[in-house]
Request: fold
Amino acid sequence: MHQDSRSIRISRLIAVAAVVAFFGIGMSGFLSYFKFQSALASAAHSRMAVPAASVRSGVEAVLALGLPLANASETPALLARERTADAEIAQIQVLDDRGRVLFTTDAPGPLADTGEVRMPLRNSFNLRLGEVVVRYSKAASAQALMHMRSRLLLIGATGVIGTLLLAAAGLTLLRRGTAATILIAVMLGMLGSTWATQRAFQEGLRPALLAKAQVVGASIGELASKALDHGLTLPELVGVREHLEGLRQEHRELAYLALRDRGGKLLFEAGQAEEARGVEVPVLHKGEQVGSVEAQVSAAYIQNILFESALDLGVVFIVAMFLTRELLHGITLSASRMDGAATLARLRIPLFLFMLAEELTRAFLPGFARSLTPGGSSISPDVLVGLPIVVFMLVVALGQPLLAPWSERSGHRRTLFLGCALSVLGLAGSALSGGVASFIAWRGLCGLGYGMVFVAGQGLVIEHTTPAERTRGFAMFVGAIMVAAVCGPPIGGMLADHMGSRWAFGVAAAMAAAAWVAVRGLPSPQAVSTPVVAPAPGDFARILKQPRFLWLTLLAALPAKLLLAGACFYLVPVYVIASGAPPSVAGRALMLYAVVLVLVMPQATRWVERGVPLSRLVGLGLCLSSLGGFALLLWPGMLPVYCVTALLGLGQGLSIAAQSSLLAQVCAPEIAAHGSGPVFGAYRLIERLGNASGPLLAGLLVVLMGHAAAFAALGALILGCGLLFLLMAARAKA
Amino acid sequence: MKRRELLALSLLPGLARAARPWRIYAITYRGQTDVERGFADYFKSRGIAVDIIWRDIALDPARLPALVDEIRREKPDLIHTWGTGVTLGLVGRWDEQDRSHHINNIPVVFSLVAAPVGAGIVADMQSPGRAVTGVSHMAGLTAQVQGMTRYRRLRKLGMLYSRNEPNSVAVLTELQALGRARGFDVIAKPFNLDAAGRNVVEGAADIVRSFAAAGADWLYLPPDSFLNTQAKAVVIPAALEAGLPVFASTEQLMASGALLGLVSRYYNIGQFAAYKAEQILVNRVPPERIPIETLTRFALQINLAVARRLGVLPPLEMFNYAELIGEAK
Reply:
C-alpha cells in the first residue's frame, strides 16, 4: 500500500515537472522566437534605409537644381546603381505626391513577401513632393527564422526531456519524492535551455548585422569614390574620422570603421577594433580598387539584445518556480478524502487560475484603454483610461455585501461556476471591445464575476474551517491570490508585447474557462452552512460612529488601497506606455511588487505573533510603501518604477498581516456585541472604495501635473496619512 | 424672395472666377530669370490655370509709375515683383503716410528681397500686417556660419563691407551677436572713403591682407552692392594670395571665385513665391497673415579648384550634399 502510494506520488511529481518544463521552456522558446523575429526585421529595415536615403538625397539634389521631379533624367541610373548594390533589394521606386509611380527599376517578376522602406521627398521649402520606396526580399530572413525555429524546437525538446530525466533520476536516487528535487530539476532544465537559446540567438543574428555592416561600408566607399572623381586622393581626404564616427553613432550595431589604402595600410579609423574580423568592402574608382573599408559589428549591441531577452526568460523562470509550487500543493491531494481540508485544497487550483486570469490583464489594461480612447472627448484621456479599473473596483466593492448572502443561499460552488462564466464572457468581450464605453461595460461584468468568485471562495473557506483553522484557511486564500499576482502581470505583459492586448485578453478568458473546469473538482454543497448575514445599513451607521474604526480604516486601510490601485494598477502601466516602453516592463514591475510582498509577509506575520505593536507595523508599512513615489523625481527612466513597486510590496507586506488583527483588537467590543461580520464587511467595503478611487485620483493628478509629479503627490498624500496615523496611535497610548 | 436673389447674385462672381484663370501681373527687373521660370512652372505642376502678364523695367526704376497706372486699369488678382527696388517702388514703405502713388488694394508677392524689414517693406517678417508678402533669398546667418564651421574651424571671422549700406551694417551687428553666442571673433573693416564720402577700392587689398595677418580663418562677404562690384577683380584675388578662405553670401559673389557659399536657387525662390500666391488666390489666406520666409534648403557650393589652390580641401561628408564646382586636380 505504501509502495503504491509512493509510486503514485512519483508519477505525479514527474507529471508536475513535465507540465512546468513544458510551460517554462515552451514559453521561453516562444518569446525568444518573437524577439529574434523582431531583431531580424529591424536589422533588415535599417539596412535598407541606407540605399533609400541615398536615392532620396540624389533625387533631392536634382530637385534643388530646379528640375521638376518627373523630368529628372539621371534618376533611372541612380535607381539602377543603388539596386545592384544590395542583392536583396527587389525594387526601387520614386512616387509623386499622389502615389503614382514616376520611376521604377525593372521588377524581375511578381513581388511576393517583401518588406519596404519609405522615405518622403521634400523640396527646398519643405513641401512634400513624393516618396522613395525600396522593396526588399524577406527570403533570407524567412530562412533564418525557420532555421531558428527548428533550433528552438530542438532545444525545447531536449530541455523538457532532460528535465524529466533529471527529475526521475533525482527521485529514484533520493528514495523519497521531494518537491525540492522537482524544483531543482526544472531549474536546471530551464537554465540549460536558456543558455542554448542565447547561443542560437547570437549565431542567428550575426549574419544579419554583418549584412548591415556591408551596406554601410559600401556607402563609405561610394562617398570616397565621389571625392576621388573630383581629383582628390584617398590619403588627403579631410574629416574622414568625423564622418566615420558620425556613422557609428547613427548605426549602433557597428563597433569599428576603418578606411585603408590599396596596400591595406590604415588611413583613418573610428571606434574600437574588436577580435572578430568584420566585413571588408573594396573602394572602387573607375573600375579599379583603390582602397578598402573595414566594418566590424559590435559585440555589445548583440549583448544588449540578449540581455533584454534574458530578462524575459528570467521572468518566465520565476513564474515557473511559483507554478511548480502551486502544482505540487495541488497533487498532495488524495482522491478519497472529502473533508474540509481537502475541499480547501481543491479550491486552490481554480482560485489560482481565476486570479491569474485577472492579474494577467494588469500590465496592459491601461495601455489598451488608451488605444481605445477617441481623439476629441470632453473627458481627459488620462482620466478616461482609469475608468475601466474604477468601474471594476466599484462593482466588486458594492457587489460584495449583496453577493455574500446570495452566495450563501445559492451555494458557493454554483456561485463559483457563475462567477467564472461571467468573467470568461467579460474578458472575451474586453478582447473584442470596439470603444472605451463597451470596454468599461465588459470590465464591469468582469468585476461582477470577480466579486462572485471572491465571496464564494471566502464563503467556502468559512464553511469548511473551524474558527481555529480559519486563519490558515484565509492564508491559503490570500496565498493563491499572491502567487497569481506574481505570475500574472509579467506573463500578461509579455503576451501583450508579442501578440497584442486583444490576444492577451483572449488568453485570460481561456484561463478563466480553465478555472471554470477546475471548479468541477469541488464537492457539491452540503446541506449545513452557517448563514452569514449581510451588514445592514443600521450596522454601518453604528460602526462608522466609532472613532477607532474610522482611524484605522480612513488613515491606514483606505490610503493603502488608494496607493495600490492608483500607483500600481494605474500609474505604473500608464507611465510605462507614455515613456514608450513595452508593456512587459510594466509586467515585470508589478511582478516585483508581488514577489517582495510574498517574501515579506511571512516575516511580518512572525513579528505580529512575537508581539510587535500592531499599529506601529501598520503605520510604518504605510509610510514605507509611499516612499517609492518620490523615486521618479530623483531618476529618469524605468528604474524608479521598479523602486515604486518594490517599496509598495515591502510596505504592504508589513502592514497587511497586522491590519486585520489590529481591526479585531480595536473593535473588540463591537465584535463581542454584534459579531465580526458587520465590522469586517464595512472595513472591506471602505477598502474597496479606496481601490476604486485610486485610479480616479491618480488620473486627475496626471492631468494636473504630469506623471512623475502624480507619483510624488500620491506618495506624499499617503505618507501624510501614515504619519498622522502613527501620531494618533502614539497619543492614544500616552 | 429677395434674400434668395441676393444669394444667387453673390454666388455669381465666385462661379465666374472658378471658370476663368487667375490673372497675375509680374514685374521683372532685368528680364526673365530662373525666378520667373520657377514661378510659372509651379502653377503648371499644380494644375492651376494662370494668366501671367509680364512687364520688365529693364534696370530703370523710372518706368514703374506707368506700370502702376496700368495695374490700376487692369485690376489683376495678384502682383509678383522681383527684388527690393521694384517692390518698394510699387508698394512704398509700410510706415509711409502718403501712398497715393502706390498700390494698396491688390496682394503683392515679392521675390529676392534680401532684408524686407531693413528695407522698410514690412514691420515684421512673421506677420507682414499689409497685403505684401514674399520670399527672401538670404540664407539665415546661422546657416551660413554653420556652413563655414562644418567646412573648417571658425574662431576668427574677417568681414569687409560698405559702411553706408544699412543692410551690411545690419548683417555685421547680427554676425557679432552670433559670434558672442558661438564663440568666434568678428574683425570687421569698412571700405575706405574718398573725400566725397563714397566707397573706394583703394586699400581694400591691404585690408584683406590684414585679416589674414590677424589670424582670420574665413573672410565673409556680405550681400553688399559696392563689394559686389569689386569682389572678382580685387577682394577675392587678394584673399587667395593671402591664403584666406572666402565665404560668399550670394550666388554672384560665389561665382566671383569664393571657396564656399550658401546660395538660394532662383528657380526654387520662384517656386516658393508661386506657392505663396497659391495660398492667397486658391486657399484664400489673407496675405497679411502669410509670413515672409526663406527657403528651408539652400545649396552649399564649393569651388574645388580654389580649395586645391588654398590647400583647404572640403571634409568627406560634404561630398554627400554640396555642389562641387571645378576639379581639385
